[in-house]
Amino acid sequence: QVYVVFSKELKCWCRALVESVCCQADGYKLGCFLVDYAKYCSVALENIRVLAGAFAKIPHRAKKCRLHCTKPLTLHIDYCENTAKIGPAKRWDTAAIQHFRKLLE
Q1: pTM, entire model
Q2: Could you give the number of structural domains in the chain?
Q3: What would the mean pLDDT of 82-101 be, rounded to a whole number?
């Protein structure tokens, strides 16, 4: 379900999908994906609202997607043996993400 959340970074109300809920000392925080900006953000529970009927039917501008059969790689450095090898990684490196964005532009 799509909700409306207030993004402090963008300083406006945005449509979002709630992906996670985290309990912290100062209250609940929601991990959200902003469907019109393709950004992830953390929002306090008091900054979420139910989306009004007509606005829920507007298509999203951003879609989550993955590259088919593309796995993240990283450089593994062994300081003891003084070697470096490229191998599998759990997440994409920041440099790889920036390089991919430049290729898209």
Answers
A1: 0.58
A2: 2
A3: 86
Residue 13 shares a structural domain with residue 50: yes
Tracing tokens 């951003």 back to the chain, one arrives at 62
For 7-22, the pLDDT digits (tens) are 988 899 999 999 999 9
Q: Which long-range contacts (CB under 8 A, 24 or more apart) does 92-100 make?
A: 96/72
The reply to whether 15 and 44 lie within a common domain is yes
- The answer to whether residue 62 scores a pLDDT higher than 80 is no
Look at the block and give the residue holding tokens 């390089």: 99
The span from the first CA to the last CA of the chain, in angstroms, equals: 31
SS3 19: strand
Cβ contacts of 50 within 8 Å, gap of 6 or more: 3, 4
Domain that holds residue 97: 73-103
> What pLDDT does residue 25 have?
83
